[in-house]
From TrEMBL:
Pfam families: CHASE, HATPase_c
E.C. number(s) listed in UniProt: 2.7.13.3
InterPro entries the UniProt entry points to: CHASE_dom, CHASE_sf, HATPase_C_sf, HATPase_dom, His_kinase_dom, HisK_dim/P_sf, Sig_transdc_His_kin-like_C
Transmembrane segments: 12-29
Source organism of the structure: Halarcobacter ebronensis
Residues of the Histidine kinase domain: 346-567
Catalytic activity: ATP + protein L-histidine = ADP + protein N-phospho-L-histidine
Name this polypeptide is given: histidine kinase
Amino acid sequence: MIKNRSKLHVSSIIVIGLLLSLAVGYIIYSMEEKAIKNSFENIVDNKMKSFYREILVNLETLYTLSILFNDNKTPSKEEFSKEAKKIIKRHNAIQALEWIPKVENKNRKEFEKEFFFTKQLPNKSMQRVEEKEFYFPVYYVEPYKNNEKALGFDLSSNPSRNQTIQAALKTKSPQITQAIELVQYNNKKGFLAFLPIFDKKEEIRGFVLGVFVIEDIFEKSVLNDQFSKDTSFKIFDHNSSKEEPIFTYNLENKNYKHITYKKDLPQMWSRQWNFEAIPNVNYIIQNRSIAFELSLIVGVLLTIIVSYKINRYHNQKLESIQQLKNKDDILYIQSRYATIGETLSNIEHQWRSPLSKLSSNVIAIQSELEFKGIPTKQKLLNFLDNMQNTLNYMGNLVDEFKNFHIQDKKKVLFLFRNTLDVALKLLEHDFIKLKVEVIRNKTDNMQLFGYQNEFSQVLINILSNSRDAFIERKISNPIIQIQTYTKESKKYIKIRDNAGGIEEEHIENIFEQFYSTKESSGIGLHLSKMIISEHMDGNIEVENCKFSLLSKRHKGTTFIIELPIVNLA
């Protein structure tokens, strides 16, 4: 017996120790994960700000170039080229700077002295554009090399560029196109920025246009440390109908997908971009300490030490007993004595009152014999009946004790009020503390068929929910009303409270497994529905209600249990 207990104790300590070690390790792991996530997000925020500032710096160059067009002046090609070269030299993300004048059809020949106005066909070839009211051709371009074909290209002939032009004309504000592939720059993703130039009458003269490569801006502003190499980036355009990113970096990395950070950049010339960053596994490894592993090692070592000491203590105790007598005999005797002692202790507690009654009857007979002589037959029979009843009661107590731990998994007929008494008894302490008034029909004789202990658990779950709502909402005069009735061959049990009801968004899901509106496992009401529907062939529903009781109006929740009338004949 002692040896078995020793093994049980050691096994329990090992299990508990390992569970505690895992729990502590998990807490440390979660805290580190949160710290890494916060640090990662802060760094990404700084990278985003740097990226955004770099875009603004590049866009500002268009304003610098637009100074050439002040006072309704139009610079010569040489003047434009000279200033544009200075700007491009300082900003490597700018691939081209252009002047796009608005040309009326009547002035077309004047502008087509050196090149024709063209449009691009689906096969990428260029063709002279047909006549129309207005044109927006590329008239100046810097650098000229690799951009020869761009001269004369009518931007309004391209649907996406024309859309941006029209937006700029409508809002009289600068605009950015959606991301495009720049064929002349190895198909890198870029965008065009249109800065409108107006005359003194606020009529459009044309656009200063910049061609920017997203990758170059990203490399200059973001890719300046090891962090960037350990992170995958995506940039999305909210204004685009396409869901794919306009730029990606490091997607081939083995990403740590438990952390994904998304954030919007501030709006840029009517364009809204979104940043998404995911660290790779290498970044997580580098930033995670060995605290998790250490906690597990320390926990396991402590578990081993404690288990060893407990096991050693029990072994020493066992050895001392073996020195006195044969181990098996002593263990058997100890086991028997322990069982008898526990049994006698419980029976002794229950037998005190009936033993006192037996003693009173014996004393009464002795007094009768001593002072009055032999009692009459009738009086002696009364004494004997009382003693027999007392002995029967004591025997029943023994039977109850013997069957105390036996659980009979068999459906039986039972009274609802008795089961309700058990449930209320278990919650009595909380209900008294909260001053809950339970209104019920104590003379109710409704009989139910099923597993009584399971049905008791259903009642406890429902009443516990009411109790929790009373506590959470601080109900001053809590009330629970319990009603039973029979209708159309069905038995109904209605339990309602005045705790304010359940929010409509939750009420449809209240019986779902693991669904809870408070910090709990969320299985109580799911289990209740399963017991009623599967074990008792019934149904349980919940609804919010308003009702009058004790001369007051109340608002709360009603649980309705519907059960069939069972014919056992």
